[in-house]
Amino acid sequence: MKHIMTGKVKEVYQSDDDTLEFVYTDSISVFDKIIPSKIPHKGLTLCKTSQFWFERLNEEGIRNHYLGSTPDGRMKVRKVDIIRDYSKIDGRTTNYLIPLEIICRHYVAGSLLDRVKAGKITAEELGFPKGHEVKYGERLPAPFIEATTKLEEHDMNLTVAEAKEMAGLSDSEYQEIKDVVIRIDRIIDDVVKGQGLIHCDGKKEFGYDKERRLMVVDTFGTLDEDRWWDADEYARGNIVELSKEFVRQHYRSTGYHEVLMKARDAGLAEPDIPALPADVIGKVSRLYTEMYERITGETF
Question: What was the pLDDT predicted at 155?
C-alpha cells in the first residue's frame, strides 16, 4: 500500500494501478485552514456517511468511483488522474478528476449571504424578483448551482465559461453535471426528510472514467461538504446549524474570520487559525456522531 497524498481531512493510499483507499482522519478545516484540533470520531463518521450515500447512488444507477469498504474503515475507490496543468485537459481527456467543485444551494446561508451583502451577487441572479431583500434562511426560488476551483490553494468562484474551459467540458457535459447534482440532491431530500432534516446546500465533485463517462467522486452528503438544518426548528422560525457551519460560526464570533478575510483580500500574510476550546471540541464530536445516525438511520 503506497501513501500518495495527505489532504485536509483524509489520507490517500494506492493499492493497485486502478484503486485508491481513503482514510478519513479526525482533522477538521474551515476557510481552507486546518484547525490544530482533533475531533474524536469525526473521521469514521465521515467515512461511513460517504459509504451510505454512494450505496444509494449505486441503487439509483448513478455512476461513481465507490468500490466498497475495508474492515478497518477505509473507503476503496477507482483511481483517476489529477491534472494540474489545465492546458492538458480537453474534450478527449479521459480518466481524470474534473478540477471543479460544484455547489448547489437551496437556501440562503453562509458565503452566499456574504456575497449578497457585499453586492457581488444580486437577488435577480438568485431567481428573486428585482428589489427583493435577500434574507438569511429563506428558500431560493430554484436550485442555484455554481462552480469553484478544486485544486487551487483557496477555492475561487468561476463563471460558467471559466469552469468549462478549465475542466475541458462542452456545454452538454457541463449540463450533465448540473443534472446529476439536482438528481442527487433529490435523493438526499427523500432520505433525510424522514429524519427531520433540511438539506440546505452542498458540494459535489466529479471525474471521467477511462471511457469519458461521468462519475461522482470524492465525498458528498456529510457534515463537511453539506449544510444541514433541523426541520422542526426551521418551521418555528429558528435555524439550528447541524454541520461544519457550527465551527465556522465559532470563528466568526471570535473575529478570526473577519481578520482572515481582510488579510486574504489584501494579499497579506494570513493569521494562523487558533485551536478549538475543549468544550467546542466535545460539542462538535457529538454533532458528527449524532448527525451520522440522523442521516443514515443507523447506530454509530
Answer: 87
Q: What percent of the chain has pLDDT over 90?
A: 91
**71 and 243 in contact (C-beta within 8 Å)?**
no
Bridge partner residues of 226 (DSSP): 202
User: What residue spans define the domains of the chain?
Assistant: 2-295
Angle between helices 245-253 and 256-266 (to 10 degrees): 90
pTM of the model: 0.92
At the fourth CATH level, which superfamily is domain 2-295?
ATP-grasp fold, B domain (3.30.470.20)
Average the pLDDT over each of 64-78, 92-106, 246-260 and give the range with the smallest value. Answer: 64-78
Query: Rounded to whole angstroms, what are the CA distances from 82 to 5, 100, 255?
Result: 11, 12, 36
Cell 476557510, residue located: 31
Q: What are phi and psi of 222, to 5 degrees?
A: -105, 180
Other beta carbons within 10 angstroms of residue 235's beta carbon come to 10
